[in-house]
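User: Reviewer 2 asked us to show a designed sequence for the structure in our supplementary figure. I'm pasting the structure tokens here. Could you produce the per-position amino acids so we can include them in the response letter?
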């Protein structure tokens, strides 16, 4: 399973709890759309992702609220291959739906994961699936959330879940191109 997190906006801890914490610990790959805020929060999330036997990769991008030393360590865009799918990860503050769709086309990606709005959502465009995992810790009037991409025998399922485990939304993907 690939787990996507975003917009933690923490000062000291990962702020992961419930199903979100379990998913991050059990994932094959963890992605974060930025706005950890501090290096300490980035390291805490990396440690939880790495707590699985053999460690789990953490792919992350800089957000517009990350402290300068952290932002300098992180790229603005990351491309990840998972289960045969190409996934592009961005924070989203420099993009609208059209530019995200064009970025997917440019990168040959089936999925774009972008944060910034704190609003968990899945939207199909002509070029890709746009996924916003929301914020597990700072939902700002939205439901707290994270995303889980699970490979199936044919295709995959992406689910948006709350830390309590409630399903917010889901989408089934056909086989990757």
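Assistant: Here is a per-position design you can include in the supplement:
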């Amino acid at each position: 399973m690939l787990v996507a997190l975003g917009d933690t906006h923490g000062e000291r801890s990962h702020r992961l709890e419930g199903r979100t914490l379990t998913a991050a610990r059990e994932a094959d790959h963890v992605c974060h759309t930025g706005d950890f805020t501090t290096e300490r929060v980035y390291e805490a999330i990396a440690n939880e992702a790495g707590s699985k036997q053999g460690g789990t990769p953490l792919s992350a991008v800089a957000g517009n609220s990350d402290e300068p030393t952290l932002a300098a360590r992180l790229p603005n865009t990351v491309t990840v291959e998972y289960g045969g799918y190409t996934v592009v990860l961005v924070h989203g503050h420099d993009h609208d739906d059209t530019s995200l769709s064009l970025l997917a086309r440019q990168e040959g990606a089936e999925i774009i994961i972008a944060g910034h709005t704190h609003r968990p959502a899945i939207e199909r465009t002509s070029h890709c699936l746009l996924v916003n995992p929301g914020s597990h810790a700072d939902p700002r009037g939205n439901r707290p959330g994270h995303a889980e991409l699970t490979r199936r025998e044919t295709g995959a399922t992406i689910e948006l879940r709350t830390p309590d485990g409630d399903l917010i939304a889901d989408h089934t993907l056909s086989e990757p191109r």
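For the response letter, you might also mention the following. The chain has one domain: 2-173. Helices lie at 18-26, 39-49, 68-73, 97-107.
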